[in-house]
Amino acid sequence: MRLPRHPGTLLVGAAATTLVVAIASLEPRARADSAPIPAGGFPLVAGAEARGLPPLPDQSPRIANYTIDARIDPDARSVQGTLVLEWRNSSEQALDRFPFHLYWNAFRNNLSTTARQGSRRWDGRTRGQDDVLGWTRVKTAHLLGDVEEDLTPSLRYVHPDGNEDDRTVIDLRTPRPVAPGATALFRLEWEARIPHGRVGRAGQVHDYLFVAQWFPKIGVFGNGEWICPPFYAWTEFFSDFGAYDVTLTLPAGHVVGATGRLEEKTANADGTQTWHYVQEDVHDFAWTASRRFHERRAVFDDPGYPPVEILLLVQPEHAHLAERYIEATKLALRAYGTWSAPYPYAQITVVDPAWGSASGGMEYPTLFTGGTNVMAPRALQSPESVTVHEAGHQFWYGLVANNEFEEAWLDEGLNTYMTAKALDRGIGAEGWGRRYFGGQYGRGGRTGWPVVAPDVWIPRGSDRLEGLRDEGRTDVLARPGWTYRSRHSYRVNSYDKPALVLQTLEGLLGEDAMVRVLRTYARRYRFAHPTTDDFMTTVEEVTGESWRWFFDETFFSSELCDYTLEVKSRKARPPSGWFEDGDGTLALKATDEPDEGSESEGTPASDPTFESEVTVVRAGGVRMPVELRVDFADGRTVSETWDGRDRWTRFRYTGARVVRAVVDPEVKIAIDVDRANNDWVLDKGPARRAATKWAARFMLWVQHLLELQMVMG
Ligand SMILES: [Zn+2]
Fold this sequence. Notes:
Blueprint: H1 16-24, H2 47-50, E1 64-73, E2 78-88, E3 95-101, H3 113-117, H4 119-126, E4 135-144, E5 149-150, E6 156-157, E7 169-178, E8 183-193, E9 203-205, E10 208-211, E11 217-218, E12 220-222, E13 225-227, E14 242-251, E15 255-258, E16 261-267, E17 272-282, E18 287-290, E19 294-300, E20 308-314, H5 322-339, E21 347-351, E22 362-364, E23 367-369, H6 384-398, H7 408-426, E24 430-436, E25 449-458, H8 465-471, H9 487-509, H10 511-524, H11 532-543, H12 548-553, E26 563-571, E27 577-580, E28 586-589, E29 610-618, E30 626-632, E31 637-642, E32 648-655, E33 658-663, E34 679-681, H13 685-692, H14 696-712
Helix pairs in contact: 1-13, 5-6, 5-7, 6-7, 7-9, 8-9, 9-10, 10-11
The structure holds zinc ion (ZN).
The site of zinc ion has 6 residues, from helix 6 and helix 7.
């Protein structure tokens, strides 16, 4: 999923002169306006390089296999469905209790866990309009076999979170336990009312249907217990892999997109059409339909990669952006394929959501939703950034399917880190801009009139720092997704912080080792359910070193990282006092020169006789090893390293004057929340600092100027 970046608050009263100086001295890193996405530059891991990496599995464990037959009446907003679930007990335990998710009951009324947890948001989206709500009801449940057992009387709503009013999880009981290794066949008949598309991620807006989390879905049994929590307001999903065979019948005239490959499309005598989709080795199934979609097709066929058919379903008003959606999808397949393992499915479907739908920016197996705006300056990378992000989820959420209820960061963090890297390498830096008159700064920043600051570019990752700075202390990152203090904290700890932590890990490990970690992790855990421990173990295995300290400082911490420095230079004192001369006798030396003190004006910087102190200070609670680079007036440069364990350390130099000192000059420590204080420059310290500050405070000055310009006319 894609969550909007931290909106920030307006800083009023910034000095306009400082601002102009700062803008003038900014150096653009890349031209995003015209730069095409290069087709090369992301070599496939193959041959010798692939040796030593874990083998890729041919298929998933196929634990939960669904055959679904559903009839949809968009006018009545109804779904009538039957499913047969073939479920294999892969545990060591006999089981007679089987929980299923009924996600759409989150939208049943205002007492659901979702409604209560996100009450303001809920009220805003549903107020006074009961027809926006939706629900799911299981009509019958049977256990199939030699003797068919009716499980319907055993059906109970359960409330793992204690909310007795929630209806998003049911339990079914079987009369006899299902033995370890045995397979059970369940048949469920259900009906559902499709919610309005603005309430949740699924729903209907006019004729646009986005249908996800829509059928009764069994939980995951792991580590001796069922994992089947209620539908929380902000956490995502977790399911077992399987094969899906889905038949959808709906009125003729719709353009349909779905998880998997279309096997057959038939016209029925009653004016409906039936669409039949099949896909193995996925853990969910979503689909969309609209009469307005324009279809665009393309093929990703980079040498060495398995070919992938791309189907784009785009709103007619966004047809001019089709090529950008497609190129961004290819960029994701290329970049993520390189940095993890290639996409194994034959097709991917890109859905451009209808205006007013909340379905945008969300991932499902082999299908995802983007989101864009009619006015989409290239510099803002929309639809590119949301497209790369959601396509990128195929590689983590889709293929390395960790538990998103509990460890959302593992998917969103890896994905956000990799999205930024793919965009940076594939397109260039993102331009800085805002959209105005679009109401709330919405999902993916899609609404409003775009204003782009000329030649102001956002370096990779730095747009995530403001969230970390503001909310980083609210929670320890490594905790279940629904237990964060707020939606903001969920966002920071699932997206911003882990992305910056992983970028920092890349800085410390070096890119080659980092890519090897990710390839190993992606291959070993394809079609599996890895945990944070599995990720950390992979880092340690690949590097051959313990990185526990690093994870303790980041994943298991709510401290911030901030390094800064102080520089003092003074003219070296001429000797004055008693000194031993050549034959060992003491002689008095005196000098006429007054002690000019530090930072003496009028002394040329090239004067070779300076004594300098550079004090590196750890202002934050996070301890990271850092580098220091010191430049001297005679052109000499010295590099130092410090383990960052103490609160400060000091380096002393004699000779030419220090003209510049930078902590973390290569920006390895991406989690440093204030880069403005990392850089000291002789004589023009503050101005230079402003110029090099890319963080939010500076951006807000720019925003202030832009808003001023708009008000002034
Ligand atoms: Zn995401």
